[in-house]
Queue: 2 jobs
Job 1
Amino acid sequence: MRLKDKVCIITGAGGGMGQTAALMFAREGAQVAVFELNEEAGLNTVKQVREAGGIAELFACNVANEQSVKQAVERTIELFGRIDVLYNNAGIMPAEDHSVIDTPVEVWDLVMNVNVKGIFLMCKYVIPEMLRQQKGSIINIASFVAFMGCSVPQDAYTASKGAVVSLTRSLAIQFRPQGIRSNAICPGPIETPLLLDWLVKDEEAKRIRLNRQPSGRFGKPEDIVNCAIYLASDESDWTNGAILNVDGGITCNYF
Ligand SMILES: NC(=O)c1ccc[n+]([C@@H]2O[C@H](COP(=O)([O-])OP(=O)(O)OC[C@H]3O[C@@H](n4cnc5c(N)ncnc54)[C@H](O)[C@@H]3O)[C@@H](O)[C@H]2O)c1
């Protein structure tokens, strides 16, 4: 087991890649703290982990709210006694997020609050505990859009993921001397319900996107979580400040 007895916080673990992460981390022996805004979804993840014989606990949490994060982190330390891994997965991509010229200010603020401030707050309250331990691994989920423009823009989302990449590098330099590694994963398009609903209905959109994908398929949540397991485990002791594109090669594609 690659994560035996490691206490791992996974934000947004009630659905999508976060839920897959909770299940796969628990299978590797991790004790999973499910940090989730949607309590019903979070409980469903906890139930699935336990049914599979793993350890998980729900901590209802809005990563964009300081009090909520502070309380959930304190309760995690009370219950599990330590925090080995902070997996900042929660992120949003509202439909109203378009170009800078037509994105409502409230939508811009919401995206920044969850995708960037959420990681800031989680780090603010988890890193002091990791400093006490002189050990920890922070995994930030950015996106391939941090590096590529798109003619169908989502400017708030794109800017937020660029910020995640930059913050990861700063954390990596500041805290590695005290035993805390920080890395980011930049997923390409992954088969989550959102993407599938859209592409299953629109064959042309699917064809255009797959034409640009050298691997010939969209990613699966497991493709991302396999990388995260490496970053969470002690196998990655010398991996710090890495910005890992896990995208089938799409960011290498000029045309
Ligand atoms: N799906 C993709 O193709 C793709 C590609 C690149 C990057 N990403 C990134 O990967 C991460 C996971 O994406 P996904 O597709 O699995 O998302 P998803 O929408 O399926 O799941 C996100 C989870 O986060 C939770 N959440 C939302 N806001 C929250 C908040 N304020 N506090 C706590 N929890 C909150 C949601 O309730 C949900 O359970 C996100 O950061 C996303 O930006 C996704």
Job 2
Amino acid sequence: MRIVDLFEAFFIDLDGVVYIGEKPISGAKETLLRLRSLGKTTIYLTNDPRSSPEDYVKKLENMGIPSNPEDIITSIMAIAHYIKYQHQDLIQKKAYVVGTQALKREINRIGLALVEGEEAKMADFVIIGGHPGFHYDEIKISTLAIRNGALFYATNRDPNVPSEEGYVPATGSELAAIEVASGKRAITAGKPEAIMFEVAIAKNHLDSKENIAIIGDRLDTDIMGGKAAGISTILVLSGSTKSEDLDDTEIMPDFVINNLGDLLSDKDKFINPKKFPQ
Ligand SMILES: [Mg+2]
């Protein structure tokens, strides 16, 4: 039996699994097309709060991988969905949003009015997503609003992201400044939080967690999050984790594959020997 035969739905991380930066990972396209032709549900989960689902659809399309905006769950959508369902009445509530236009649009779409400047200091919500224009005034206004009682959320906690220049600061670094200044800790949605997985499950009406697997290249986000959400976990070695990293971690994926193409091979070859010793 192949790994692909064990599951009906796959939650797939993007960077390190489907591509690295702008470069597609070899064999990913062919495997994803095959999964679609087998009728499998493929949902992409990304913590990156800088782009919209439409941006990812375009990026995947350029690599020959067809998808729809509904197939993509970003940390922006996850936090917006979470806030909407945690708070029944958002009308007339005000949000101070630090982040990209994509984040601001999504927060506005769930019914929160966006405020800036003086008004923002009395906002009901402060919502953070990493953006390259991050400024001292944003730390200041967020801190004042939170200390005045605003509820505090952020898209994710990734401290940095890979770029052509190396790893550069991301949401987690900006969020840390606001958390230190305000003395409060934000609720975040990105992996490894279960929120992102719950949103993906709810939006796709998936009813049995046994039939779902997450495929990701990071133990501390993808695999840890999958475990917290109660679904099966597949670590892929095409990104940031190497097989020797499994020697000193307690986070044990169910399967370890070299690349997405291994989904179409005999499952017994890829059962994590460290989790299930022979
Ligand atoms: Mg990744």
